[in-house]
């Protein structure tokens, strides 16, 4: 995602802090590589419940809302200030997307999909904020999209593989290309969900095509 200014109600400093937190989400796929699936699911579900509880209290309690604004206000987008309609924040969508990938897809596919979100999305956003001049869609810059693909390419190259074969790398790059295009379209669903969901779905289909009968 390529945010180019504060038109979403976020200051430059706040957007950069937001992306630093986004980078830290990479600890989840890294942890998943070494830990049991059920442990990661338990951690993510606990985090999600906690975030949703805070969101609900934010709408009902002036004290909670004031603390929320005090500590996170610089990082919040316009709709995250709004108390008139309940909406999940970006962090909740990250956790939902991670749960989606871990539950539905094989381990290494889920890991690379989550890393794409953590690194490619965050790096492209920062590039768009600092250097993006030309926009082709709301909150999308040409530079941000190029950076998204290049950062994603590094993730595809260096992430763990089943075979380390040509077809496996090819599948990763095809999935990355389609995910980059989808992200550029600016879909109505939160991109913290769509990026790993699209990437993992496409990559899984390609594994089935390239390695028929393979038991993940």
Kindly report how far apart the N and C termini lie: 31 Å
Let me know the largest β-sheet: 2 strands, antiparallel
Strand order of the largest sheet: 1-2
Shape: globular
| Radius of gyration from the alpha-carbon trace, in angstroms | 18 Å
Integer count of domains: 1
The overall strand count is 2
| Number of helical elements | 10
| Poorly predicted runs | 1-7
The percent range for strand residues is: under 5%
Q: Write the element-wise H/E pattern from the N-terminal end onward.
A: HHHHHHHEEHHH
Question: How would you summarize the topology of this molecule?
Answer:
Blueprint: H1 12-24, H2 27-34, H3 37-60, H4 62-72, H5 78-81, H6 90-104, H7 107-131, E1 135-137, E2 140-141, H8 142-158, H9 166-185, H10 191-210
Antiparallel strand pairs: 1-2
Helix pairs in contact: 1-7, 2-7, 3-4, 3-6, 6-7, 6-10, 7-8, 7-10, 8-9, 9-10
């Amino acid at each position: 995602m390529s945010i180019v200014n504060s038109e979403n109600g976020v200051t430059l400093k706040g957007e950069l802090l937001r992306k630093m937190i986004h980078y830290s989400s990479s600890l989840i796929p890294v942890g998943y590589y070494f830990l049991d699936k059920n442990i990661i699911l338990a951690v993510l579900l606990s985090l999600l419940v906690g975030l949703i509880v805070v969101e609900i209290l934010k709408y009902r309690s002036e004290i909670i809302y004031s603390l929320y604004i005090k500590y996170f206000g610089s990082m919040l987008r316009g709709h995250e200030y709004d108390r008139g309609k309940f909406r999940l924040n970006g962090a909740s969508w990250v956790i939902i997307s991670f749960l989606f990938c871990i539950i539905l897809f094989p381990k290494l596919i889920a890991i690379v999909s989550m890393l794409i979100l953590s690194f490619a999305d965050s790096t492209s956003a920062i590039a768009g904020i600092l250097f993006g001049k030309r926009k082709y869609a709301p909150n999308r810059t040409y530079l941000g999209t190029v950076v998204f693909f290049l950062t994603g390419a590094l993730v595809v190259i260096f992430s763990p593989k089943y075979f380390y074969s040509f077809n496996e790398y090819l599948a990763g790059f095809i999935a990355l290309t389609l995910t980059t295009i989808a992200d550029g379209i600016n879909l109505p669903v939160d991109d913290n969900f769509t990026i790993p969901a699209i990437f993992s779905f496409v990559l899984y289909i390609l594994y089935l095509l390239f390695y028929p009968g393979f038991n993940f």
